[in-house]
Amino acid sequence: MIRRLLLALLVLPTVLGAQQRRDEVRPYPGSFNWQFLGRHNEAARLFNAFDYGHAILYERLLTMPLEGAKTALARDYDFLVGDLLVKPPRFAIPEEAIEPTYAKVAWRAKVTFDWAHILHRQIYDAYADPRLTPAARDALIERITDYYLEETRYALPTVPKSMALMDEQPFSQIFRREVPQFNGLIWSYHWLQIGLYEAFLTDDDRSNDAAAVRQVAARWRAMVQGAPAGYPSVMPMAPAVAPRFTKAHPRAAAIFDNLHMLHDIISDILASPTIPRAGKGAEIQRQLDLMQDPTRDLMGAEHWWMMGDMMGGVGKMGGVAGGP
User: Fold this and answer.
1) How many alpha carbons fall within 13 Å on the CB side of residue 295?
2) What are the angstrom distances between the C-alpha of 106 and each of 36, 38, 195, 285?
3) Vertex 182, ends 177 and 184: CA angle to 5°?
4) Interatomic CA distance for residues 140 and 30, integer angstroms
5) 47, 91, 210, 275: which has the fewest Cβ within 10 Å?
6) Are 188 and 50 in contact (CB under 8 A)?
C-alpha cells in the first residue's frame, strides 16, 4: 500500500513545482552528473529510499505526540528495512509530499539538507566518471565544493562543529534514547553516505570500482540485517570511517559531518516534549544559525581526527569503509 502511494507521489513534482518557493538550489553543471546512478545503480537508488526515511521521520515527530510517533515510526521502520531499502525507488522521491508540515515549518532546514545531499551525490558522480584522471576528479570535487559554498543561505561550514551542539543541549539525545532502532538506521545511512567515497580510493585500478562499491553497500546491508547490534552506536564521522576521502577533501568531509550532526539535532528538537510544537520552527532556525556560523562552536582539526578513538573506537561508528 505504502509503495503504491510512493509511486503515485512520483507524478506530483509538476503540481508541487508550482507551489515551491523560488529559493531552491541547482546542481553544479557538467557531463559528470548522473555517472554514479548510471554505473552503480543499486547503490545510488538507496539514497532515494534514504530521503524517504528522513522525510517520514521528521513529519512523524513534528505532527504526532512522541508516543504516537514512536508507534508510527516502528511501522515505518519495518516498511523501510523490509521493502523500500530492499527494492529502492528508481527515482527521487518528492520529499515535500512526504513531509508537508515539516517543509512548511522548517523550509530553511529542508533546503539546507537538500543542498548538502546534492553535494554528496555530485561527489559520487565525480568519483564514478571514468573519463576523469585522479587529478581532474579531485579538482572537480573542489570546484563542486566551492559552488556549494557560494549558496551562503544553505551551506554548512567547512570546519567541523563542536559535538556539544549535538550532545550537550537541553534537548540533546532524546531521539536516540526514545527511538533507538530508527536512530541506528539513520546512523547507518550516514555511514554509507561517507563510506562510499572510500570505495573509490582504496585501489588505483578503476576496473575495481564496481566491486568496491558493492562491497561497501554489502557491509551496510549487513548492518541493517544485524540490527540493532549491527548499527553504529555513535554517530559515524568522516575522518574515522573515510580517512582517505577526508585527507583528500577535508572541506567536504567537514560539511558532511556537520550535516549529519544537524540531522541529529533536528530529530532531537522535533522529539523533545519540552519544546512546544509552536516553538520548534524557531528553535530549528536558531540551531541553523549556530551550525552555519564558521567562527564559533568549533572542533579543532586534531580533535576531529581523534574522534574515532575518543568515542570508543571506529568500530562503534561502523568501522572504516573500503578495503585495506
Assistant:
1) 0
2) 30, 33, 28, 8
3) 80
4) 10
5) 91
6) no
User: Could you tell me if 189 and 50 are in contact, meaning their C-beta atoms sit under 8 angstroms apart?
Assistant: yes
Burial 22-54 (b: 16+ CB within 10 A, else e): eeebebbeeebbebbbebbeebbbbbbbbbbbb
240-283 tens-digit pLDDT: 999 999 999 999 999 999 999 999 999 999 999 999 999 999 99
Low-confidence ranges of the chain (pLDDT < 50): 1, 5-20, 22
Q: Would you call 161 helix, strand, or coil by DSSP?
A: strand
Cell triple for 154: 544553505
Q: Which of 84, 116, 98, 76 is nearest to 16 (CA)?
A: 98
Q: Is pTM beyond 0.90 here?
A: yes
Q: How buried is residue 143: exposed, middle or buried, by Cβ count under 10 Å (0-12/13-18/19+)?
A: middle
The answer to whether 178 and 164 are in contact (CB under 8 A) is: no
Q: Which of 98, 126, 108 has the alpha carbon at shortest distance from 252?
A: 126
Q: Which candidate, 145, 165, 164, places its Cα nearest to that of 156?
A: 145
- What own/partner pairs with CB < 8 Å and gap ≥ 24 does 248-251 have? 248/138, 248/141, 248/201, 249/123, 249/138, 249/141, 249/142, 249/145, 250/158, 250/301, 251/142, 251/145, 251/158
33: left (phi over 0), alpha (psi -120 to 50) or beta: beta
H helices of the chain, where? 2-9, 13-17, 35-39, 41-63, 66-79, 95-98, 100-105, 107-128, 134-150, 164-167, 174-178, 180-199, 209-225, 238-241, 243-248, 250-271, 277-292, 301-305, 307-310
Number of residues assigned to the chain: 324
DSSP state of 81: I
Residue 159 dihedral angles phi and psi, to the nearest 5° = -115, 140
- Identity (one letter) of the amino acid at 164? A
The strand pairing partners of 298, in sequence order, are 161
What is the model's pLDDT at position 197? 97
- Dihedral-angle region of residue 105 (phi above 0 means left; psi in -120 to 50 means alpha; beta otherwise): alpha
